[in-house]
Amino acid sequence: MISPVRTLPKADAAGPPSPSLIPVATNPAEEQVPTTFHTEQRQPLQAPVELRSANRQLRTAFTVEPTTFTVAGAKVKGYAYQGNYIGPTLRVHPGDTVRIDLTNRLGEPTNLHGHGMFMSPIGISDNVLRVMKSNSFNHVVWKLPPDIEPGTYWYHSHLHGLVEPQIFAGLSGVLIVDGLEQLLPPELQTIQQQVVALKDLQVKDDAIVTKNIDSSAPTTRTVNGQVDPVLTVQTNQTQMLRLANIGADIWYRLKLSGSQFTVIAQDANPVAHVWTADELVLPPGKRYDVLVKWPEPGTHTLETLPYTTGPDGDNYPQRRLMTRCRSAATRFQMSPGQPLWLRRLRLQPTT
Ligand SMILES: [Cu+2]
What we know:
The protein has 351 residues and is mainly beta. The protein is built from two helices and 24 strands.
C-alpha cells in the first residue's frame, strides 16, 4: 500500500557526534554491512516523506539549508530540502501543477530541476540556468503535460558548478507521476509499491563529504537513507519497486536473490515489452520500475555487485542494500507457467 501523507518532521537536534572514517568492525555472525560510520541496520524499510497533489496541484515549501539529519540512526550534517537526507517524494498526476516556494539558506546559490520531465525550461519553470541566490525566495512552477508518462522521476539541485556537491550533500528526492499501476492487469492495480531511493555518502567529522570525492573510497550506500533495511514481502506476493539512483556519482549493479526484476518502466517510460533481468545497472539518475515476487519463503537480499566504470573510472565493491524478510504466508498466487499479467500488460510502445 502506498504510504499515507505525513506531515513534515523537523530534523532532530544534533546528538552526540558519531565516529567518522572508522570502519565499523564487520562481524560475520551479525551480518552487518560495513559502513564508515556507525549505523543502525535491519530496521523496517521506511518510505521517504510523501507529499501528494490535490485538486490538480501540489504546493509546498522547500527551505533549503544546512542541517543535521539522521542517516541510518547517525547524526550527519548535510543539506536538506525539508529537513531529511532524502527529499520528500512528490506524488502527482499527469497535468498537475507543482508549486514550490524555495527559500535558499545555503549560503551559496542553488536551483531546482525536475529530472526527465517534459516541462518548460524557461522562466520560473524547470529552468536549470536560473540562479537562486543565497538568502533568496523563489517561486517554482512546474506544469506537467497531460500526456506525461507515468513512472518514477527525480528532482535535484542543478546549479552549474555545484550540482555534484549539492546532490552529495543531500539535495535530491523522488517524484512519481501516478498511473503506471493502471497499465497493469486489474488484479495487480492495487499492488503494494515501495520507493527504493538509492543514495550514497561518505562522512568525515560527522559531515557529508561533498568535494574532491574519491568514488572508489569507502562509501555508505543507503536505501531511503537506511542501511540494509528490511522489506516485508510475503511469498508469491507481487510488489512494485521504484528503483531510483538519486545520488551524484556512484553506479549500482543490482541483483536480487530469489527473484528476478520484471521491468515495466525505464526512466519513466513504460516499456513496450515487459522484460525480466537478473541484474540491472543504474548509473546516477537512472530509474527502473520493476515488479518482484519471491516464490520461496525465507530471507533474500537486494545487493549491488562489484562494478567498474572502466580503466580510468571507479571501482565499487559488493554491498547488501536491503533484506527481504522471512514470511511464509501466501497472499497472491500466480498461475503456473507464464504469468497471466505478462501477456495482459496494456503498455504502449514508446518512441
Ligand atoms: Cu538531473
